[in-house]
Amino acid sequence: MGRTARNRDLPHLPPVERIELSHEHIKLRLAAAVILLLIGAGALAYGFTALMTPSTGWQEIEISSSTGLNCASEFILSYELGASGTSATAENRALSALYADAAVHAYQVFDTAQSWDGVGGLYDVNHHPNEIVEVDPVLYRAFTLLEEHGSRALYLGPVYGMYQSLFFCESDVDAAYFDPLTDAGAAAFASEGAAFARDAGAVDLELLGDDRVRLNVSREYLDWAEANGGEDFLDFFWLKNAFVADYLADTLAANGYTRGVLSSYDGYTRNLDGSGTSFSLNLFDRSEGALRTVGVLNYTGPLSLVSLRAYPVDSEDLSRYYQWENGDIRSPFVDLSDGLCRTSLPQLMCCSGTEGCAEIALRMAPLYVGSDFSPAGVGELAGSGIWTVWCQDRIIHSNVPDAAITDVYDVNGVAYTLDQ
Predict the structure, then answer these.
(1) Exposure string (b/e) for 212-249, b if CB count within 10 Å is 16 or more?
(2) Which pTM does this prediction carry?
(3) How far apart are CA 89 and CA 212, in angstroms?
(4) SS3 content of the chain, % helix, strand, coil (to 5)
(5) Are 304 and 241 in contact, with CB atoms under 8 Å apart?
(6) pLDDT computed for residue 38 by the predictor
(7) In the chain, is it the N or the C terminus that has fewer CB atoms within a 10 Å radius of its CB?
(8) Mean pLDDT: which of 1-15, 302-316, 357-371 is highest?
């Protein structure tokens, strides 16, 4: 059958009847249709607004996905919206914008990967040795605090770079090449890098005032760095988020936002809330290969807290630790004496109502980064208004005033006791 014959057997259709519409009341019907359309659109808009409008009370503050490279992904900012009596929507919008700007700025200041226009950052200092560089005031203050504490952890940049490569390894075969405890070449690199870091004659940051610095690097160290690919002489590494947390929190407080808590995934917390609200913090311990939540610290703010761990807790930690298949763990806490990662305890937590995270972390470092834990060091910290919580031999020790530890772990014959 030809293509043109397909419709020949179809029944006849009735002729199309032409219907004339009455024009009576057409304006009324049109107006009704418009009203119904507006009602529908209004309902949709209301539903969308209800979804997008933040509620009052404690909410997580997020920044726009269109924000440039920033450090907000490493932090959680929880804030009590509407507590000041202002609109939660307006407060959230303004707070998000302020937080985004600060997070972008902090990222650029402490970035070791590239230079940013108008920002004298860490990259610029590293890549202009023996030259005067004007740096951002945030970075200059960080350098000043490190100098006041006599800390040379900043100078372990090349060694930190090796550990960062180790932490990104996906197998023990790859990790063996970067671990100084398994590879002779890595061990030599760590030892030599640490020796340079300890030597002020090899590398030293000179603070010249007015936010100007000069990174003095010896010819020998420059040649070694060029031969070994260690061009980042300076790196804050595990200390970085302590300084970032302080900058972000101080920026929020300076602009009147004090009903919030800022926490980094690697253990730095600034609680700005002075309303008397009660807060809690889980306490962990890792012993015999098992990670446990052993208690809960209950406190009121404002308070700065630093929790240093020798082990990962979740997927957010994968860029900061490497765990071998046999359970051995490498952490970011590098001992200046030989370039090996080393901690005196599985975890150490310190807090203060007067000091920021960077100050606490720098005071904790001599007590934590090393082989032996000294309880005498806890007393020295207390003398400067820094309080301590730590676990040892299944005993939770704490000298934190006006804070209670509850929910002490006691499950399946594994019991912890409290010394407070």
Answers:
(1) ebbbbbbeebbebbeeeebebbbbbbbbbbbbbbbbbb
(2) 0.87
(3) 41
(4) 40, 25, 40
(5) no
(6) 44
(7) N
(8) 357-371
